[in-house]
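Two entries, shown back to back:
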Amino acid sequence: MDIKTASALRRLRLVSGPEAISFLLLLVCSVLKRTTDFNAVPVMGAVHGFLFVLYVLFWADAWNRAQWPLKTAAFYFLMSVLPTGGFFADRRLKREAEDAVIASRARNEGVVNA
């Protein structure tokens, strides 16, 4: 992987955490709307919707650049629709991005995998 691929993975990683948090907050707001007079669902819905769209755009870019197999791409998409999935995606993406940077540096320095 090259630096652009690592950057795509990093962008996806950076949006996965806030997307997961906004999803959880939206669920809390939905419960509060039904149990109290507090209604923040329209605001949290818009915030979560914006972050979800960003996640999907960054996911598509990462899939394209990293040349993921369908199983890996489906896993990361599934993580976007589960309430805490963004946290799990973040952890795996961090590992993938670090591996991509290490591989790129090794290639630039002329180190060949044995």
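entry 2 starts here
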Amino acid sequence: MLLPVYLGMLREGERVLGDAFRAVSTGHVDEPDVYQTCMALAKQCDAHLESLDPIIHRYGEQKDDEPDRLHAAELSETRSGPLGLLRDLQDLSLLASFVDTTYTLVRQAASALRDEDLLDHIDRCHGQTETQIAWIGTRMKQAAPQALVVA
């Protein structure tokens, strides 16, 4: 069974996404909605990580080279100005999409295993990840005119 590989990817994805939300939050502190929302979303990622522990205890976690590719997209520093905000949000979108699709795939495995506890966990966390993606998309649409036309 290779589910432990994807559980490891999910853990690493949530960790990187939470760190990226924190980086964008502190990098764009002049945008109050970005600061507050990104900090709240980072806390969601932290809660997702913590709630994965019993699942990983049950199924295990296998390290794989794939999460290393995620580090290439990891936000090591934020950019400044309206265009920087837009690009940072775009990076967040990519990371959140990785987590989203990983939840989708792990959910398929949980269905095949008929593991109701895992399904409940995924449905709760995946739903919050979808909300994160929706906020990022909305905020990018809001930032785009300022960054691409006015600036």
